[in-house]
Amino acid sequence: MNLEEELNKILSPEQVTTNQTMREQHSRDESYHTPSLPDVVVFPKSTADVQQVVSFANKHEIPVVPFGLGTSLEGNSIPYHGGISLDLSLMNQVLEVRPGDFLIKVQPGITRTQLNKELKKHGLFFTVDPGADATLGGMAATNASGTTSVRYGIMRDQVRDLEVVLANGDVIHTGGLSAKSSSGYNLNGLMVGSEGTLGVITELTLKVHGIPECIMAARAAFPDANSAVEAVTSILAANIPVARMEFVDEYSIHQVNLSNESNYEEKPTIFLEFHGNEAGLKQDVEFMKDIVSELGCKDIYFELDTKSRALLWEARHNLAYSFIHGFPGKKLMVTDVSLPITELSGAILNSRKEMDELGLIGALVGHVGDGNYHALVMVDLTDEVELNKAKQLNERIVHYALKRGGTCTGEHGVGVGKIMYQQQEHGAAYEVMKAIKKTLDPKGIMNPGKIFSKE
């Protein structure tokens, strides 16, 4: 069967391509995982298009791998079994804004930046900020979170309803417009984080928030990592309304200074942002200053104007690129675990020790307000010894987290990079997940080889 010819009978020819360059673009993501070419790339424009393509693929048992912008970090959208790479970038419209209900309905291909540009007209914003300008469909598929989750929650917390095309071509809605429901199983929670293994998300109804009256950013340097993490715990215990709380180690600050020509003090640092009203924030910030000073923070710097705040968070968001540009010829490997906050400082110190013992170049950063942190490791993929050391580091970091009640992935998803830890983390529940997969996708066409080691 000529797959391109058959798909041209379903969609317009301009929506289907086997162009080598286009296939290569859809063979990889931002991760270090090995690329793999799809047989064909398809660009649906509507739910009906997706429905027809998936129904066709199910009939002929052809793999379907949803694709957003390729910003995933665990090989989540790499088509290791070939088949159809379903690029949803043309489905990027805002379908409905309901300001009074603090809801917006969008197609999956819209990006976070595009969404917030539309919401700003209504005095609203979407909170989840994973750093990359990812698509909302991709963010839902991996249950993304990022810098603001300490205040507003993760992607799963923002989803009110999803429209999903199942493997057999059926279209379902997983929720509604109501703020709460006790009716039936929570299908929102099931589909968010499923990485395209249960169906294709074609619409999202999302919770949005009012733009705060006052936003203040701060940077606080500490004598050591333990003091910095202890400050995080103390700030949270004081119920100070912090919206972002990011740990950046001294190695990260050094790299930021090199790439941004800044002169931040090269010590373990917490980047913070506060949302609220002006009078309330002044009181909260004074309280916060007392807390951090008791933990050895000698200097704390505040940024009030929009430009200065943007520069501060640009340094944090572009940290990965600072390492990439600083070490040409090497590829960035990013680990991703989350632990109880009380276990976080020990995990960070252990990761630094492991990295130094293995002789790897890298740094530690994290969304420490919810216990999520990352090791950024620069690896020469052509050096088998160095690559194996990096994989050892990742394995040690994951095992440390799992032994202390954590998870192997806080926000990047399982993809192919975390499959080997699923049984250890979930136990008997892993078999329940596999049973759900088998029920909804009996032929195993939906993003095969992800989350589950055997379909």
UniProtKB/TrEMBL annotation:
Assigned protein family: Belongs to the FAD-binding oxidoreductase/transferase type 4 family.
EC number annotated for this UniProt entry: 1.1.2.4
Keywords, in A-Z order: FAD, Flavoprotein, Oxidoreductase, Transit peptide
Organism of origin: Alkalihalophilus lindianensis
InterPro entries: FAD-bd_oxidored_4_C, FAD-bd_PCMH, FAD-bd_PCMH-like_sf, FAD-bd_PCMH_sub2, FAD-linked_Oxase-like_C, Oxid_FAD_bind_N, Vanillyl_alc_oxidase_C-sub2
Cofactor(s) the protein needs: FAD
PROSITE patterns in the cross-refs: FAD_PCMH
Domain FAD-binding PCMH-type: 34-211
SUPFAM superfamilies: FAD-binding/transporter-associated domain-like, FAD-linked oxidases, C-terminal domain
Name of this protein: D-lactate dehydrogenase (cytochrome)
